[in-house]
């Protein structure tokens, strides 16, 4: 099982994908954990999830941890498959709870009441791709898998 989780190919595509997606997710994680980039920090985000979204606190906590730790894991390429599946789960939850009712398209022109799902589908496709390929070159997974 460990070998499957850590196994990756020597491709550069997974590297590019995980760095790009990891950078984007790291900003969202930093918003939720530290309040950086206009975020509300840990307590503000937990409060939003539990009070406004009516989610159990454990779900809010897991979303915050997955976005923050998952982004770091992607950037380092450690447990890339696990991080990708976890982030994919968060993305599916976000779509179901907050965006599907606004349709497909993002709110580019400000005509909708919220954002559609197109961004999340693109991000989800990247997560699925990384779950299949692993972290690629220059990943901790690749270094470890050579010795397992």
UniProtKB/TrEMBL annotation:
Compartments where found = Cell membrane
What keywords does the record list, in alphabetical order? Cell membrane, Membrane, Transmembrane, Transmembrane helix
Q: Does the keyword Transmembrane helix apply?
A: yes
Listed InterPro entries = DoxX (IPR032808), DoxX-like_oxidoreductase (IPR051907)
**Mainly resides where?**
membrane
Which family does the entry's similarity section mention? Belongs to the DoxX family.
Q: TM segments?
A: 57-78, 85-108, 120-140
Q: Which domain of life is it from?
A: Bacteria
Tell me what topology the record assigns in the membrane.
Answer: Multi-pass membrane protein
Protein's name in the database: DoxX family protein
Q: Does the keyword Transcription apply?
A: no
């Amino acid at each position: 099982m460990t070998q499957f989780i850590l196994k990756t190919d020597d491709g550069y595509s997974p590297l590019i994908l995980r760095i790009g997606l990891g950078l984007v997710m790291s900003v969202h994680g930093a918003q939720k954990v530290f309040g950086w980039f206009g975020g509300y920090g840990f307590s503000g985000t937990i409060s939003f999830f539990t009070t406004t979204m009516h989610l159990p606190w454990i779900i809010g906590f897991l979303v915050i941890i997955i976005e923050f730790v998952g982004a770091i894991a992607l950037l380092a390429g450690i447990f890339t498959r696990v991080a990708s599946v976890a982030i994919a789960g968060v993305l599916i939850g976000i779509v179901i709870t907050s965006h599907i009712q606004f349709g497909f398209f993002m709110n580019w022109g400000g005509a909708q009441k919220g954002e559609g799902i197109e961004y999340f589908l693109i991000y989800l496709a990247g997560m699925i791709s990384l779950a299949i390929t692993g972290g690629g070159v220059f990943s901790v997974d690749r270094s470890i898998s050579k010795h397992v």
